[in-house]
Amino acid sequence: MQNMLTIISNALCRITGRNVLLIDLSEYVNLTSPAAPALATTQRQPPKPPPVSTRASVAQLVSSQNDALDSPGTRVVVSRSFADFTPQATFDIKKCDMHRLEDGPPLKAELTRDQGLQYYRTMQTVRRMELKADQLYKQKIIRGFCHLYDGQEACAAGIEAAITPSDHLITAYRAHGYTFTRGVSIKEILAELTGRKGGVAKGKGGSMHMYAPHFYGGNGIVGAQVPLGAGIALACLYQGNNQICVTLYGDGAANQGQIFESFNMAALWKLPCIFICENNKYGMGTSVERASASTDYYKRGDYIPGIRVDGMDVLCVREATKFAADHCRSGKGPIIMELQTYRYHGHSMSDPGVSYRTREEIQEVRSKSDPISLLKERMLTNNMASVEEFKEIDIEIRKQVEDAAQFATSDPEPPLEELCNHIFSNSPPLEVRGTHPWAKLKSIS
């Protein structure tokens, strides 16, 4: 009997290429033959079970086999079940309102299973990261200005899905989501919020001033990033690199004079710039109807074509941004996009967000238009993923955010002598308003 078990074990090992499930069968089979000689036992010891499970009793057999599925050798079996999922589906999306355009973005969007899971992961990560920032702010670990992005995740995820990493993006002060989609880790973002050395700007930028390759921040002055974005687009045109610049601003900044100056230059020079107004219905605590004589922000360019997009649907945003990017790359000049979206938090952490709108209004948007729930429901309805799979992703993201928060609260603050570092990109001038920038500083606090 022992020889027979040995043969079976060896055969299973050859077939699977792994021995993770080969356990001491004598615990589960009643052997009637005499015990094998001691020499044979030492020559053919059954492999030790994985550390995740002890497999000490029959009662643990089922759970131990489930634990063993985490090993690479058994994922082949599990991955076959993925064939039961729909690999790709086509969805109807909301038609965009258009200005000075004969044709607009498509009315259908294709989504692969991998794309859907990636978009879900991105939006859920931004959501969890912002909720953690809310918690850290209320604990007074994050101080100063802090503008959260939860509710608007489809905008950042959809735009990034439609452009290339070499394209450029600049936004206002509600920048955490775009900082993440542009490639900065959760750890670096949260550490920047808490003012630590490991932050993306070494702890000296804070919530509104985070940067990455081809990402120009985070800008604290209302509307000031728009002419900067036009300048980046001018550089793309000048260099002839077929790149574009996505320039974002909010409905609260839409009445700034410098925006219309930027529109004028971009149209004159046919700059490859997508001007995007993230219309989240409120500029600070003022509704768009009370602040703007015309709330058709996509028409504000007049002589510049524009489209109005459902900013709560990641597929709508993706398809509209692809359309706009093709428009710019083809040499037709700038285009304006208005993303109709909604923020769940107040304007900033100092704004409770319920003095100018009702809790019922916020809850209604959450229940009917939440971008994460919308994508999840689409994928579940079309058998593109399982509830368990989404739960696993959620658990993984929660752990990543918790680990990042732990780092952000334990990493040291930058020392005082670094205060004047990284101000200039090259050698500093001899004098800056009479103060030498490299003078040794002393703390008087």
TrEMBL record:
Q: Which residues form a coiled coil?
A: none
Please state every residue range assigned to the domain named Dehydrogenase E1 component.
122-416
The answer, when asked if Transit peptide is one of the entry's keywords, is yes
Q: Which GO terms describe its molecular function?
A: metal ion binding; pyruvate dehydrogenase (acetyl-transferring) activity
Q: Which Gene3D superfamilies match?
A: 3.40.50.970
Q: What does it do?
A: The pyruvate dehydrogenase complex catalyzes the overall conversion of pyruvate to acetyl-CoA and CO(2), and thereby links the glycolytic pathway to the tricarboxylic cycle.
Q: What is this protein called?
A: Pyruvate dehydrogenase E1 component subunit alpha
Which species is the source of this protein?
Seriola lalandi dorsalis
